[in-house]
């Protein structure tokens, strides 16, 4: 087995497979020298489909010359039996944890197929969809209506990461995040936009390095003043001074993913959604 | 222990905790009669922080009168030791799987802290952010530019779920999804909008029940013709006929979450992002 051999990795689920894939990605990232070919097999909800999966696993093993790795979140014993009819390293997500949970809780689990992602009717889900619509309606300072029902209002210079962060907060956490650009007019007046003043306690700032900002803006408006390094330096410094003066908590988005930024925001502003 | 006692559940991670939380939610959903108070403790990257977690776990146990459940994705032995200095059911996400993976791959894992979500520089991450910007720029038929670089174009009547699905496809899978409304003018002409014709093979339709659609539209424009059940029936039937005539694959979004819809679309149109 050479260091750079390719392994096929399957994520198998009776639902979307997103749970298996999320855990699988985290684990595979611990082996950065390996190359993995990743295959998602969702909605495996019959014995026939489980057997089809076994066939695909066998074929991948033959073609790779090494046995595949399978992250499995199927729960029914018949399904699992159908699946395991192939040579692979099977890592069962649920099997390992369900039993200790049953013992601890003194209850049997429902073994419900694809339960987590089949929640389109739940209140939690409805909140998430509402929050997405809210983020879209309140992107880039488009609307000042209903800012009082927002959970957080992101501020920062154009292209500092506000929009994807707002959408992620909505999608993952059901948090209503508006976002509002800080623009040269605000810096000249040295004041927050009037609309934001009464919501000061909900504000959270994003900043970014001037180099990175210039690079991002170049892609959108090449060779503009807007994208120039000088202008980016000016805007970022002015925005930072404004945030410090107004005591707005802020975070540097430069080397952080939207997952990390969103999680930090949740932590810092103690958003009370879903019990956090 | 009564059936409805509350348990505190902690999701603990040296990164965002999203992996622990995703798996935890799936597992807890198997116990629908229980009430769980959920607490995310992210960015636990020092022994002091791990010990603080242990304190919070102990306090929760005292206040609940039952020991908490901990989904732990910390990997370093010192961190884990600091954390385990409390009475709880510890479910270690990584510990269970890393060892069999190391054996299978013949490699040691890097045990890298928060590796998965610290990937803001990776190509994969850049694709996701680009896809989010693409989805926003091509929401609701706003722009016809660059439709040729889209991976999929969602079509359907207004409020059938196109926008959140496009954003989820972008955020989770890095897929560039445009979306395009089917409107009464299209039905009268009995034809797809001209711009879409040359991209027919990328089209994917969403439909929805008339009752659900009317309900969603009522929330936005109460007592309008747009929201009336009759009009919703008309639009949905006409859109479905149009999609059938044009042989556009479609899916009913009524009882499905955006995760399920997005996964089905990935499966049906064989999107080749990230090796699927």
TrEMBL record, chains A, B:
Aminoacyl-tRNA synthetase keyword on record: no
Top-level taxon in the UniProt lineage: Bacteria
GO molecular function: ADP binding; ATP binding; phosphotransferase activity, phosphate group as acceptor; protein serine/threonine kinase activity
Reaction catalysis annotation: [pyruvate, water dikinase]-phosphate + phosphate + H(+) = [pyruvate, water dikinase] + diphosphate; [pyruvate, water dikinase] + ADP = [pyruvate, water dikinase]-phosphate + AMP + H(+)
Binding-site positions, ADP: 156-163
InterPro entries hit by this protein: Kinase-pyrophosphorylase, PSRP
Keywords for the protein's UniProt record, in alphabetical order: Kinase, Nucleotide-binding, Serine/threonine-protein kinase, Transferase
EC number(s) per entry: 2.7.11.33, 2.7.4.28
Entries under Pfam families matching the protein: Kinase-PPPase
Biological role: Bifunctional serine/threonine kinase and phosphorylase involved in the regulation of the phosphoenolpyruvate synthase (PEPS) by catalyzing its phosphorylation/dephosphorylation.
Cited HAMAP family: PSRP
Record family assignment: Belongs to the pyruvate, phosphate/water dikinase regulatory protein family. PSRP subfamily.
Protein name per Swiss-Prot or TrEMBL: Putative phosphoenolpyruvate synthase regulatory protein
Species annotation: Denitromonas halophila
